[in-house]
Write a structure and sequence with these properties.
By secondary structure, this protein is an alpha+beta fold. 18% of the residues lie in helices and 41% in strands. A hairpin with a 3-residue loop joins β8 and β9.
């Protein structure tokens, strides 16, 4: 009897966990209509010391976006610096009607999308309105926040795009473009501020600051 009770308790715990972390769905329509904001930083900016790593700021960066997928890494060489990647979308890539026709996944530090031809929107719009963020959390609170995000949540992220150097990673440089693809096209972002947004944009419901 004790074994049955224990198994039921484990099954209930798994059900509650997956229910609370299930993807969030919305009615059709663009949820985030703003573009990411990027401001170049001069070469004279001082390096940021982040544990064993040296971060060279390349640009101030902020965006409102929908979480398309989240991937926590724990064992690859980059995980100590970047414990989580966030695939995010804005504009047409925040529209439920579009995302219902695209399968999104993450692995090996890449963000992948698949669709049945024809695509729901032109492929260049998929590329220019979504990206894979390699998140360098400025604090443990930011790390916990990003690791806990659910697919479909709306977030505001702010910080700096950087070039990182350190043990096991060599030199890792952020992309500074939203239209590139393939290896090196992801943003490497030191996330300093982050918040969840309600559907009425600009109204943070949870806030984490450096």
């Amino acid at each position: 009897m004790k074994i049955i009770s224990a198994l039921l308790a484990i099954a209930l715990a798994f059900f509650v966990y997956f229910y609370l972390h299930r993807p969030i769905s919305y009615p059709a329509g663009v949820l985030v209509d703003s573009e990411p904001e990027q401001l170049a930083i001069s070469d004279g900016q001082a390096l940021i010391e982040h544990g064993e790593y040296h971060l060279k700021p390349l640009a101030r960066f902020s965006l409102d976006a929908r979480i398309l997928h989240r991937k926590v890494y724990g064992y690859d060489p980059e995980a100590k610096l970047v414990p989580v990647d966030l695939a995010v979308g804005w504009g047409p890539m925040s529209d439920q009607a579009v995302l219902d026709q695209i399968k999104i996944s993450q692995s090996m530090r890449f963000y992948w999308y698949e669709y049945q031809f024809p695509p729901p929107i032109p492929k260049d719009q998929i590329i220019s309105h979504s990206t894979n963020l390699h998140v360098i959390p400025a604090t443990s609170a930011v790390a916990s926040f990003c690791k806990s995000l659910r697919q479909g949540e709306l977030v505001h992220l702010q910080g700096e795009l950087v070039e990182a150097t350190g043990p096991e990673i060599g030199t890792w440089r952020s992309s500074l473009s939203r239209t590139d693809t393939g290896n090196g096209a992801c943003e490497l972002m030191l996330v300093e501020d982050c918040s969840k947004l309600g559907r009425a944009q600009g109204r943070p419901t949870t806030l984490v600051k450096r």
